[in-house]
Structure prediction request, 250 residues.
Amino acid sequence: MARKTVVILGGTAEARRLADALVDERGERLRVITSLAGRTKNPKYPKGEIREGGFGGADGLAAYLEDVSAGLLIDATHPYAAQISRHAAEAAVEKGVPRLLLNRPAWDAQDGDHWIHVKSVGEAVQEISRKSDACLITTGVNDLVAFTPIITTKLFVRLIEKPESLPLQDAEIVIGSPPYRKDDEVALMRMLGIDLMVTKNAGGDATYAKIEAARTLGIEVIMIDRPPLPDGETVTSVDEAARRALEILD
Prediction:
């Protein structure tokens, strides 16, 4: 009997754990392919097959699904990877491939949190100029060019790895890899004199310490809310995704 194929759009810890779980559970009967964008220098690879690089839009992804005879497409990308999620939905419909969205739950504000909700990085930039002398930016490297108009606020940029170039010439880079600890985040924010943090509502535990630290120190957080995602069957945990994947493929 030919092995069935599942394609996982990855790049998150959940995607890696899901691929591992599916290989461990059905590796002999299931071909598990994880697709990575290829932007990270030293990614942590999951079990199963790996594909790196872009698809060239929805049409390219649709062609790939056909090439590998995919029986299921799982979108386990970052909650803010709206474009690839749209492409996944379009490609799945075009080829008649079932699609499952693994979307980790967003964080909810707790007592003591001071969140300013915005819809975009551009809105966040406007808030920074009005509110901050020393701002910690934790939105990732792809959005940094949007912060170049800021000239009166000292910017500190948290990144997982040092980029080859940085559009913010006067910003200070803070390198660190999740998971983070609350005490370390509190110490860092105190040392840098942070009075404002900009972040995305990524959800999960790996980076939640910065939210706890801001709460402890009474620091305002500009929270860039999640973009809307395409309709479709959605699960919120790796265990649920693995169970549904096997049900769909059986």
Observations:
- The CA atoms of residues 55 and 64 lie 8 Å apart.
- The mean pLDDT is 94.
- The chain has two domains: 4-105+228-249, 115-224.
- The domain at 115-224 is CATH 3.40.50.1980 (Rossmann fold).
